[in-house]
Amino acid sequence: MSVRDTTTFGGFEDRMNQIMQMGMLAGMSGGAGKKNPDMDAMLGMMFLSNLFGGGSNASVYDTQGRTVTPGGETFLIAYTLQKKQPNPMTLMAQAQQNPNKEPDFGQLLAAKRTSEGSLSLALLNLKTISRLTEIRPFDLNQELAEGDTGSILAPVFQQARENAVETSSISNLKQLALGVLMYSQDNNEKLPPMKDPSAPKKAIDPYVKNDELFVHPQTKEPYQPNVNLSRKSLAAISRPAETPLLYEASPGPDGMRAVAYVDGHVKKSRKPISRA
Questions:
Q1: Which helix (H) or strand (E) holds 231?
Q2: Considering only CA atoms, which of 273, 247, 254, 253 is closest in space to residue 172?
Q3: What angle, 0 to 180 degrees and rounded to 10, lies between the N-to-C axes of helices 149-185 and 198-208?
Q4: C-alpha distances in angstroms, 214 versus 41, 159, 163, 179, 249?
Q5: Which residue has the higher pLDDT, 97 or 170?
Q6: pLDDT tens-digit readout, 74-117
């Protein structure tokens, strides 16, 4: 049969401390003013892995119910899967050393049970065990199916990464829009040259001072300017909150793209870009 021993559960505080440490390192990894979507995604995934059991210290044992009594103490003979606890710090270090390589987020999951997995002998002192839960007859197929958490969480992890990339791109556009408005204030309320992506970049670079902001964090495509606004006076734009200033070159899988408007706000839009 299979049983779960909750005596050694690590506790909410221990897991949260680990996540907080990871969050601080993620914040430092990008440097001042830089975004690191992989680190943001990893932090979210670490939190998810704890929710779904990746960070739990609760142990699952397989046993036939036999006991031994050496020295007057009764022990339950059981076996447990040998597993390596996930280490988010190691994963972050690997991501920093190889920024162009996709991090192996699967390391944040609990060890997967397989028919070839190694088991360790465990003697559980029945006097010290506080509680055994989920006691059930052993079923190999059931154990293997429940151990395949990677396929279950893969869509969740992918969505977390996409959300992190989207947030980073919106932040980029907000900072670029702010740079354009600062340029305009210093140049008689006129927008910079915007005939192609390189024109506004050259003009507002002294205000932004970060080349990474000019391209999408995932696709690396440069953000596109509204060419009809090139050197145009802000006073001549009647609807700044509705007039695109800069936008993502390609829409996302959902058909939407992030757009920065002349008034400085950014939002996702499915509408065709209007350059009026």
A1: none
A2: 247
A3: 90
A4: 21, 24, 19, 11, 11
A5: 170
A6: 988 887 766 555 566 666 666 666 656 655 655 555 555 565 66
User: 68-79: per-residue pLDDT in tens?
Assistant: 898 888 988 887
Query: Quick one: tokens of 205?
Result: 């670079």
Tell me if 114 sits within 8 A of 144, measured CB to CB: yes
Termini Cα distance of the chain: 70
Structure tokens at 90: 């190691």
Residues with Cβ < 8 Å from 68, sequence gap 6 or more? 74, 75, 77, 123
Q: What is the Cα–Cα distance from 154 to 63, expressed in whole angstroms?
A: 31
**Cα–Cα distance measured from residue 112 to residue 82, given in angstroms and rounded to the nearest whole number:** 10
Pairwise CA distance, residues 85 & 219, whole Å: 33
pLDDT higher than threshold 50 for residue 168: yes
Look at 15-29, 135-149, 195-209 and tell me which has the smallest mean pLDDT: 15-29
Copy the structure tokens of residue 224. Answer: 């596109």
The answer to whether 213 and 175 have CB atoms below 8 angstroms apart is yes
Residue 127, token pair as written in the block: 């006097």
Query: Is the Cα dihedral 91, 92, 93, 99 positive or negative?
Result: positive
Contact present, 53 and 7 (Cβ < 8 Å): no
Read out DSSP for 21-35?
HHHHHHHHHT-TT--
* Residue spans per domain, the chain: 2-147, 173-269
Q: What is the 3-state secondary structure (H, E, C) of 160-205?
A: HHHHHHHHHHHHHHHHHHHHHHHHHHCCCCECCCCCCCHHHHHHHH
**In sequence order, what are the beta bridge partners of 132?**
5
pLDDT for 259:
97
